[in-house]
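Look over this record before class:
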Amino acid sequence: MNVETISTILDESVRAHVPLGGQAVAIGGFDGVHTGHRHVLGTMCARAKQRHLRPVVMTFHPHPRAVFGQMRYGEQLTPLDRKIARLQEEGAAHVYVIAFDEAFAQLRPESFVEDILLPLGVRDVTVGYNFSFGCGGNGCADTLRTLMMPIGDVCIVDAVVADGKTVSSTRIRACLHSGQLAEANALLGQPYTVQGTIVHGDKRGRQLGFPTANVQLDAPYVTPAHGVYAVTATIGTFHAPAVLNIGTRPSVASDGATTWEVHVLASVPECYGAQIRVALHAYVRPERTFATVEDLRQAIAHDVDCAIQFFAMNK
């Protein structure tokens, strides 16, 4: 799959890669590539196959709301490289990444169609029900349908609803922040997953009898509620259940920094500098402060038992 970055003016190299038969495109932020997004992507792929068009996705980086100062959107459910991989898994043959900045935000809806979509050979567009585009977000899905009418079709996909509420990245973020991991995972359609590098820590877990891998995240992921989680850890070809602690370690630290520490429930060699992927499966308990080191050790032992029981019941 090819990935190309585009801005307000299309490079000739981008134009050169446009297939003669035309393209069907799904447009959106797609942070999380959740069940609602997959409905949009599946619709686009089906329409592309029916009309013999190349199935492509157009997404944005960074998040438009982050560009306009809503800093919480600087945190992501799926960083760009992971999002591109997920879009490929959902059937995209090509991804256009819009380098979103203030200049792009000033494009009129007409210019977005005339200067971006038409030169890319777009003949069919699929968007979600709440799609907006153009300067000030003045264009909506119906605007896009009107502007595309002479040369192509626009399919507006209805919201996907779960438990009476719309599936959205905002809802998933809220679930993660409040410790509702099961709901977040159901909306994502898979466990919430982060990636990073194993780095040296203070070895305190080892002193307590529970050695941990300290994870330095490789992107600004959305941080779930502080506490303990049952997770699976993947390091290269090694894959095993584990316990994850996210938090400031109030019982042993005073700097207030948030850390991600993974205790793998299997024998694993030291692997500092290795890449690790951590998939969160269950929220065990919130972060707590313990009066003594022994209280902390016993709590960790109980956390491990809870994780073992969870994986035994969910084989």
User: Anything to note?
Assistant: Residues 293-313 form the longest helix (21 residues).
